[in-house]
């Protein structure tokens, strides 16, 4: 399926378009578990009532809603192939605060999955440097799970994850498991706190220290909008070019199906063509990064 | 080259009969006069129709893509919802070539990729009868090759001194004409009168672009740093009127409205506009188009460049509505011509 210039989407044909009838009609999910994972974030485990919701790639997202509150795009944090959906949601507004009141047995509405996720086959055989900032770790976790599930297919793996402070680090309890599967996990915080033994400073302070084998490394960046430009420069300095860097972009979205216009960057719609892009696909789009 | 065989002659009386019949069978909207200006409105009699006018202030998009429409109804207690498609049979009379061109583009947008059932159902229920117009100071459809349309309507009316030359654009249009009106082959004199009127209209355009439409995407692609953005950004009030009146601005917002009982509600979509400050703002507060200059650059590019690859067409139809309505007189022709000149001087 060809959409928007040369960017191919992989959701429509590959995933059978479960949402074709009215793309605005959500499916019901039942909350199985809601746990507070930091001051502002909760991790929800959701049983979908519609199996097709589970056919997702890492990097894809749902439009998640509650009747009376509306919808927002939320990244998937569970790994592909899992039987339950996990969403990690930061409370920042009306809708996300309402999500935080949900408990076991409550309903949540989901549409999707939308967009183009990561194509794992493109990453196979490569070293990968994952650079996550803040809640960028949420969609990154889905990718990490997918990669670690087939660890032998990939080269050297490094995760550089920056948080504002030690207490804002998400999924800290999973990091040892990731490391034991053969990923170098490096954490850094902007502001240290008593007991913090890790690195202090922004993520770009750690990038120069990563050993890079020539021409066989991919960088993946997911973080707050301000982070990209600096991380890209650091990766460029390590010899990674526009073909070697993947980003996942955040945008306002209201429909998920390339109509409402909010996520548009030049000629592309992030909800359909992204949110995952290779940097080379964003060439000539000054608003992208 | 136009051929007399493409047309039928519809006498004045036959036209009135056609409209009367449509009025008895359908909801009919047409170009009428409101507060001294041409506007679209619901028609109750054929006498209200004003044909061959200057453009209406608002475009015809509201009849297919209403400013507010319900997408689904929900019940919070029962956690249920049902899709809503608000389409009913309707006739639109007097749409100018720019309006029809706009609808053709909207048709492509809402059928593209994941189709939008709400728009497409409404479009399916709509009969379009086009009509001639007269350009005013802002019209520049001719520059974009849009001063005539050959598709996207069921019937098109070309007014003569007496009666009309009509063209049909669909099987439905042919069927309507044969069902509701008696037409005949036009005489050579009637065809000549049509051509003279057309030539007169063609020579009445005052605004024009200084480049061919096919050159505009490339010209705009070189204008990211043009000074004009800062200049018009400095005077733009960010009111979004340009988005409202544009026949091809289709961006929307979706929000929930809950009844006072707090049990039932509706998910509705309403028009939104890229000129508005919050349009590209995300939850954390970051605004991807923070300045008015960036927002205007986005809007102009959307009309002349961004969508041209996907839909094989410019998205400006040349109706001049954005310029006509702008509170601070930002003129799409002047801005584009400035960009064209800068491109050639580089």
Low-confidence segments of chain A, given as residue ranges, are 1-20
Which geometry of chain B do the CA atoms define?
A: globular
Please tell me the overall pLDDT of chain B. 95
Question: Which CATH class of the largest domain in chain A?
Answer: Alpha Beta
- The CATH homology group name of the largest domain in chain A: Nucleotide-binding domain of ferredoxin-NADP reductase (FNR) module
Topology:
The complex is a heterodimer of chains A (289) and B (346).
Chain A: E1 27-36, E2 41-48, E3 61-66, E4 70-75, E5 85-90, H1 94-99, E6 107-114, H2 120-123, E7 127-133, H3 137-149, E8 157-163, H4 172-180, E9 183-189, E10 199-200, E11 217-222, H5 227-237, E12 245-248, E13 264-265, E14 268-269, H6 270-273, E15 276-278
Parallel strand pairs in A: 7-8, 7-11, 8-9, 9-10, 11-12
Antiparallel strand pairs in A: 1-2, 1-6, 2-5, 3-4, 3-6, 12-15, 13-14
Chain B: E1 8-10, H1 12-25, E2 27-34, E3 37-42, E4 68-75, E5 80-83, E6 90-95, H2 97-111, H3 117-124, E7 126-131, E8 155-159, E9 164-168, H4 171-180, H5 188-202, H6 216-221, H7 227-235, H8 241-245, E10 252-258, E11 264-271, H9 292-304, H10 308-311, H11 321-325, H12 332-345
Parallel strand pairs in B: 2-6, 6-7, 7-8
Antiparallel strand pairs in B: 1-9, 2-3, 4-5, 4-11, 8-9, 10-11
Helix pairs in contact in B: 7-9
What does this structure look like?
The complex is a heterodimer of chains A (289) and B (346). Chain A has helices spanning 94-99, 120-123, 137-149, 172-180, 227-237, 270-273, and strands at residues 27-36, 41-48, 61-66, 70-75, 85-90, 107-114, 127-133, 157-163, 183-189, 199-200, 217-222, 245-248, 264-265, 268-269, 276-278. Chain A folds into 2 domains: 27-114, Beta Barrel (Elongation Factor Tu (Ef-tu), domain 3); 120-282, 3-Layer(aba) Sandwich (Rossmann fold), CATH 3.40.50.80. Chain A is α/β, with parallel strands linked by helices and 289 residues long. In chain A, the strands form 3 sheets. Chain A has a 7-stranded mixed sheet with strand order 10-9-8-7-11-12-15, with helices on both faces. Chain A is globular. Chain B folds into 2 domains: 4-202, no CATH class; 213-345, no CATH class. Helix content of chain B is 34%, strand content 19%. In chain B, the strands form 2 sheets. In chain B, strands 1-9-8-7-6-2-3 form a 7-stranded mixed sheet, sandwiched between helices. The longest helix of chain B is centred in the N-terminal third of the chain and has 15 residues, at 97-111. At the A-B interface, β4 and β13 of A face β4, β10, β11, α9 and α10 of B.
């Amino acid at each position: 399926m060809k959409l928007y210039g040369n960017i191919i989407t992989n959701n429509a044909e590959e995933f059978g378009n479960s949402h074709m009838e009215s793309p605005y009609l959500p499916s019901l999910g039942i909350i199985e578990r809601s746990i507070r994972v930091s001051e502002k974030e909760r991790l929800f485990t959701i049983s979908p009532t519609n199996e097709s919701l589970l056919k997702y790639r890492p990097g894809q997202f749902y439009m998640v809603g509650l009747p009376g509150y509306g919808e927002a795009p939320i990244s998937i944090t569970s790994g592909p192939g899992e039987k339950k959906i996990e969403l990690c949601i930061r409370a920042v507004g009306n809708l996300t605060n309402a999500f935080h009141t949900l408990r076991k047995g409550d309903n949540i509405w989901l549409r999707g999955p939308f967009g183009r996720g990561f194509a794992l086959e493109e990453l196979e055989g490569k070293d990968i440097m994952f650079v996550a900032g803040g809640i960028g770790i949420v969609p990154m976790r889905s990718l990490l799970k997918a990669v670690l599930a087939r660890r032998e297919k990939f080269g050297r793996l490094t995760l550089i994850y920056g948080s504002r402070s030690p207490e804002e680090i998400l999924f800290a309890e999973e990091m040892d498991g990731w490391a034991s599967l053969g990923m170098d996990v490096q954490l850094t915080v902007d502001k240290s706190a008593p007991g913090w033994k890790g690195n202090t400073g922004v993520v770009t302070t750690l990038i120069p220290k990563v050993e890079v084998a020539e021409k066989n490394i991919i960088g993946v960046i997911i973080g707050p909008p301000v982070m990209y430009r600096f991380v890209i420069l650091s990766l460029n300095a390590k010899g990674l070019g526009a073909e070697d860097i993947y980003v996942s972009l955040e945008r306002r979205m209201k429909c998920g199906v390339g109509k409402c216009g909010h996520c548009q960057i030049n000629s592309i719609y992030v909800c359909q063509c992204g949110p995952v892009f290779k940097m080379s696909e964003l060439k000539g789009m000054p608003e992208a990064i | 080259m136009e051929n007399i065989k493409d047309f039928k002659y519809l006498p004045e009386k036959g036209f009135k009969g056609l409209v009367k019949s449509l009025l008895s069978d359908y909801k009919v909207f047409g170009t009428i006069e409101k507060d001294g200006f041409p506007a679209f409105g619901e028609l109750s009699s054929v006498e209200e129709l004003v044909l061959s006018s200057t453009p209406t202030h608002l475009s015809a998009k509201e009849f297919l893509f209403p400013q507010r429409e319900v997408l689904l109804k929900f019940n919070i207690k029962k956690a249920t919802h049902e899709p809503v498609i608000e389409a009913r049979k309707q006739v639109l009379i007097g749409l100018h070539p720019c309006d029809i061109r706009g609808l053709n583009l909207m048709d492509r947008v809402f059928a593209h990729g994941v189709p939008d059932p709400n728009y497409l159902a409404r479009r399916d229920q709509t009969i379009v009868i086009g009509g001639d117009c007269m350009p005013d100071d802002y019209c520049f459809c001719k520059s974009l090759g849009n001063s005539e349309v050959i598709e996207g309507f069921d019937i098109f009316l070309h007014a003569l001194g007496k009666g009309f030359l009509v063209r049909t654009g669909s099987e439905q249009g042919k069927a309507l004409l044969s069902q509701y009106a008696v037409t005949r082959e036009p005489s050579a004199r009637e065809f000549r009168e049509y051509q003279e009127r057309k030539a007169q209209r063609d020579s009445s355009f005052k605004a024009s672009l200084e480049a061919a439409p096919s050159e505009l995407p490339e010209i705009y692609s070189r204008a990211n740093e043009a000074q004009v953005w800062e200049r018009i950004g400095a005077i733009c009030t960010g009111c979004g009127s340009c988005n409202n009146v544009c026949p091809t601005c289709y961006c929307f917002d979706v929000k929930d409205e809950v009844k006072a009982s707090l049990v039932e509600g509706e998910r509705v979509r309403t028009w939104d506009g890229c000129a508005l400050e919050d349009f590209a703002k995300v939850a954390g507060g970051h605004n991807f188009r923070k300045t008015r200059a960036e927002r205007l650059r986005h809007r102009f590019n959307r009309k002349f460049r961004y969508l041209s690859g996907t839909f094989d067409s410019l998205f400006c139809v040349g109706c001049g509505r954005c310029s006509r309505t702008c509170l601070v007189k930002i003129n799409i022709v002047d801005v584009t011509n400035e960009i064209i000149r800068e491109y050639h001087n580089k």
